[in-house]
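User: I'm writing a tutorial on reading structure tokens. Could you give me a worked example: one chain, its sequence, then its tokens, then a sentence or two explaining what the tokens reveal?
Assistant: Sure. Here is the example chain.
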Amino acid sequence: MERAIAREARGYVVPMNVDLLLQYRESPAMRAACDGAALRVADGMPIVWAARLLGRPLPARVAGADLVPALCEMAAARGYTVFLLGGCTGVADQAAGLLAARFPGLRVAGTHTPPDRFAPDGTAALAAVRAVNASRPALLFVALGAPTQELWVHRHWERLDATVALCCGAALDFAAGRRSRAPIWLQRAGAEWAWRLAHEPGRLWRRYLVRDAAFMGIFLKEWWSARNRVCGK
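And here are its predicted structure tokens:
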């Protein structure tokens, strides 16, 4: 991402977690949005483990919540501007202030908080594009939640005046101190989802305990297919 900004090679980045993978498989629009990304990374230990067991290992988990501070540190050192889009009222501004204090020299070009029930298309979506373009940031953090953030970036990418965009979900809430991340040992154990479920059960129980359970079936199908290919040689 740093090399892309230096070369002004435009592109957006999508961290893929289990829920996003399921949406990718079910929605043609989501599939097009993810396929259009310049870079896709694994934001979930289940994906990292599954890839390893299938003989196609990935380097590591790369979470959007980790990328935001890492990129802000890089931007402060290189003099690149950043723009924060998303979150509830006050979140982007609060995150901008805390990130600027944490990384002296960070140039926050602007923030924008879309209205509730934000849709990838429509008047509010175009207003968000105009807000970004008024600042022309090197780095754009898009925290609108999946699938809205991926669909918005994909549909408006050609008219967005930013070099690199990162779809980062709840990362601005973490940066603003509105939510707390799981301890490092839980993250490394692949159990950050349990931490988030314990803190937001009403919002996340169906996603983690019902919907995302389908990932195991996907993995087993892939594993069986790979096994048959090997045995058939």
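What the tokens reveal: The radius of gyration is 18 Å. Strands lie at 11-16, 39-42, 81-86, 107-112, 139-143, 164-167.
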